[in-house]
Specification:
With about 300 residues, the protein is an alpha+beta fold. It has seven helices and 19 strands. The protein has two domains: about 70 residues, FAH (SH3 type barrels, Roll), CATH 2.30.30; about 210 residues, Alpha-Beta Complex (Fumarylacetoacetate hydrolase, domain 2), CATH 3.90.850.10. It binds manganese (II) ion (MN).
Length: about 300
């Protein structure tokens, strides 16, 4: 099943080119959820609601996907947990950039993620395709990083690799946008709009092997990143084991798995298209200029 959020916080099941409106289910689920719960109520309720959502979608009003404003498919993750350098070819390009800039050379070996750990992006950075990416610092380098994103479905801690994928509700495409610079990574990567998620969540049962998905990105029609999650240094199971050794994972938590090589700057006016065909689809988003005071 493909689940999307759209327009003014509506819930939809995507079938072909149509969105089937199942917002009533979302309203009921949220009403029954304790305010103090950790994580996203709708993602947490999916195992119990899955069959009912499919039936509701059968008789629901539909709209063409092209006519709706897609939001991030998860409304309230408790955290955005992100892998730093997790593709060897991306480590190599960052070393090169670092050496050219005369700064300290990034150590390159597969244990780097083990030493660095995961990092967090602010939840408030999260946007969907229709919301765009507002650039606050046009004079600095603002890079795209296309990534496979796992959506956690079941709470867990100290999760072994053998059971890791049982904790995944689904997968999305994501962009871990970055302002390059000397500030702490979580500060530079938490600009509003710098965590993109979409175009919808594909439930895990539709994805055979998350470690064998093509992933690519183009800017204004030009391919910049083109790889496969088979090249991940820490694969999806290992990332869940690694993250959950430090903190509990909750339904709706997002794990950004890291970006392959080819990261490059974008500017207001650019259009970014991320793809993982055919399973995860295509995410299109515009880069814009930040308006002072905009929240
Ligand atoms: Mn990244």
């Amino acid at each position: 099943m493909k689940l999307c959020r759209y327009d003014d916080d509506r819930l939809g099941v995507v079938r072909g080119d149509l969105v089937h409106d199942v917002t009533d289910a979302q309203t009921e689920i949220r009403k029954a959820a304790p305010y103090a719960m950790n994580g996203d109520a709708v993602i947490a309720a999916l195992p119990q609601w899955r069959a009912r959502l499919e039936r509701m979608a059968d008789g629901a009003a539909t709209r063409p996907i092209a006519s709706v404003k897609l939001l991030a498919p998860v409304a309230r993750p408790s955290k955005l947990s992100c892998a730093p350098t997790n593709y060897q070819a991306h480590i190599a390009e960052m070393e090169k950039a670092s050496a050219q800039a005369g700064s300290q050379i990034v150590r390159s070996h597969s244990s780097k993620i083990l030493e660095a750990g995961m990092f967090l992006k602010a939840n408030s950075a999260l946007v969907g395709p229709s919301q765009g990416i507002p650039i606050r610092f046009p004079d600095r380098r603002n890079d795209h990083e296309v990534e496979l994103v796992m959506v956690i479905g079941k709470a867990g801690s100290d999760i072994p690799q053998s059971r890791a994928l049982d904790h995944v509700a689904g997968y999305c495409l994501g962009l871990d946008m970055t302002v390059r610079g000397r500030e702490d990574r979580s500060f530079r990567k938490s600009v509003n709009g710098y965590a993109v998620l979409g175009p919808w969540m594909v439930t895990a049962d539709e994805i055979g092997d998350p470690d064998a998905l093509p992933i690519s990105l183009e800017v204004n029609g030009e391919v910049r990143q083109n790889s496969n999650t088979g090249n991940l240094i820490y694969n999806c199971r290992r990332l869940i084991e690694f993250a959950s050794a430090f903190y509990a994972l909750y339904p709706g938590d997002l794990i950004y798995t890291g970006t392959p090589d080819g990261v490059s700057p974008v500017k207001p006016g650019d259009v970014i298209v991320c793809r993982s065909a055919p399973a995860l689809g295509e995410l299109t988003i515009k880069v814009s200029a930040h308006e002072a005071g905009a929240v």
